[in-house]
Amino acid sequence: MVKSKLPYVCGIDAAIDVVGGKWKVLILWALDHGTTRRFADLRRELPGVSEKVLIQQLRELAADEVVHREVFHEVPPHVEYSLTEFGDSLNEALRPLGAWGRRHIKTIEANRRPAEFDIATG
Amino acid sequence: MVKSKLPYVCGIDAAIDVVGGKWKVLILWALDHGTTRRFADLRRELPGVSEKVLIQQLRELAADEVVHREVFHEVPPHVEYSLTEFGDSLNEALRPLGAWGRRHIKTIEANRRPAEFDIATG
DNA sequence: GACCCCACTTACTTCTTGGTAAGTACCCCA
DNA sequence: TGGGGTACTTACCAAGAAGTAAGTGGGGTC
């Protein structure tokens, strides 16, 4: 995702900057409805993400105050990730866009791979 | 902007793929409310965009059936860009996200430049 | 004839993002 | 003592998105 230059010229610009990483909306989705997840849980829920990138995006979301990171100093210690209220409001704002994408996902995919076939290649 | 791998795992993934270029939401905004614009108009309305990137993003939006490109074979010939109905529905779906970004733009900007000052540097 | 506008196209470079793979440090269990 | 789990960090590399700059080919204007 391409970062917009600051200052943002409009709200969408800013919002997409927050949400534009390859795995960020998926992380937001995984933490929806007040869900709490550990680092290793998220790894398992996002097949294909590397540890490096997952941490990177979690840190960025935390820096944006969208995700809350809490360390539990128990034995053994662990870390829990959840949405902040701010993150929750972001997820709400994303819902119409998600619905649009879901509604048109076939069209979008088709336009994105004009060289491929939808039928099985023999 | 980072492209998601196909097939998309959720609608947001797909939508952000359509809208994720650096200038795309700005183009969508410029063409909002049935507005029609020429290439040169858009260049002027998006200060900082290069011709190469503007055309590239217009072509991608057209390939996604979000933007309509019409050539007028008059003398002199020219080209007009406008939103399709599909693009219009996308803009509608983007509005809540835009409102969220606008509401929190100060917070987002502040979190995005922790090393800079908001007061003028002397 | 020189210059501007329109709508691009092309070649080259840089910068950012993400991916790969390995290492760290600590704990528990058998 | 070897293996597994937790939560990272680090270094290196590749792909792609965007930026720069120049060229194209038409027309119209002074």
Description:
The structure is a homodimer of 122-residue chains. Chain A has a single domain (11-111), classed as Winged helix-like DNA-binding domain superfamily/Winged helix DNA-binding domain (Arc Repressor Mutant, subunit A). Chain A contains 5 helices and 3 strands, in the order H-H-E-H-H-E-E-H. Chain A has helices spanning 11-19, 24-30, 39-45, 51-63, 85-112, and strands at residues 37-38, 67-72, 78-83. A 3-stranded antiparallel β-sheet of chain A has the order 1-3-2. Chain A is globular. Residues 116-122 of chain A have low confidence and may be disordered. The interface between A and B is large, with 52 and 52 residues. The first copy, chain A, binds a DNA duplex (30 and 30 nucleotides) through residues 1-3, 21-22, 38-40, 50-53, 55-56, 75-79.
Rounded mean pLDDT score of chain A: 90
Rg for CA atoms of chain A: 17 Å
- CATH architecture descriptor name of chain A: Orthogonal Bundle
Distance between the termini of chain A: 36 Å
Strand order across the largest sheet of chain A: 1-3-2
What is the 3D form of chain A? globular
Total of DSSP H or I helical runs spanning 4+ residues of chain A: 5
Query: Which ranges of chain A are low-confidence, i.e. pLDDT below 50, for 5 or more consecutive residues?
Result: 116-122
H and E string of chain A: HHEHHEEH
Strand % of chain A is: 5-15%
Class inferred from helices and paired strands of chain A? mainly alpha
Q: Specify the oligomeric state.
A: homodimer
- Main beta sheet strand tally, sense and closure of chain A: 3 strands, antiparallel
Which chains have the largest interface? A-B, 52 and 52 residues
